[in-house]
Amino acid sequence: MKKFLAIVFAFVLVLGCISAFAEPALGGWKLSESLEVTADLRSLFDRAMENLLGVSYEPLAYLGSQTAAGTNHCFLCAATVIYPGAQATYKLVYVYEDLQGGAQILNIADFDLALFSDAAME
User: Fold this and answer.
1) Which residue range forms the structural domain that includes residue 14?
2) Helix (H, G, I), strand (E, B), or coil: what is residue 120?
3) What is the mean pLDDT of residues 25-36?
4) How many independent structural domains does the chain possess?
5) What single-letter DSSP state applies at residue 86?
6) Does 114 score more than 60 pLDDT?
7) Cβ(75)–Cβ(45) under 8 Å?
8) CA-CA distance, 59 to 46, in Å (whole number)?
9) In the chain, N or C: fewer CB atoms in 10 Å?
10) Does residue 25 lie within any of the structural domains?
11) Which residues is 30 bridged to in the sheet?
């Protein structure tokens, strides 16, 4: 788990360095200054996931936001199928928060650690 978190932090730092040299365009993603999933973010995440069945998602890090007609949020999550002995995988969960505070899932995408392997870095 420590190695995984180190890879995530390195990934976010690289993206942060890249974004520091360019002002995000309107509607562009803004990296979070902190990976912490605060109580407010957790509440938003839980509202979006409340009707989802079959898989448990645990937010590990808050990666960033995008302003739209409301706000899109990106969370890095551990996803575990609700089945005895199931192994967790990692997913990027995109949540839309409307202007009235409602929340819904926009997308759930695979987070492939192979992208950060030594071979992929060469």
Assistant:
1) 2-19+30-117
2) helix
3) 85
4) 1
5) P
6) yes
7) yes
8) 10
9) C
10) no
11) 65
Is 24 part of any domain? Answer: no
| Three-class SS state of 48 | helix
* pLDDT range class, residue 113, cuts 50, 70, 90: confident
Q: What single string gives the DSSP state of each residue in 5-19?
A: HHHHHHHHHHHHHHH
Q: How far is CA 80 from CA 49, 52, 59, 117, in A?
A: 14, 13, 12, 23
* Residue 9 tokens, joined: 């932090």
Instruction: Give me the pLDDT at residue 112, please.
Output: 79
In a domain, 61, yes or no: yes
Burial classification of residue 55, based on how many CB atoms lie within 10 Å of its CB (0-12 exposed, 13-18 middle, 19 or more buried)? middle
Look at residue 122 and tell me if it is in a domain.
no
CATH code of 13's domain:
3.10.450
Tokens of 61: 């890090």
> Against a cut of 0.85, is the pTM above it?
no
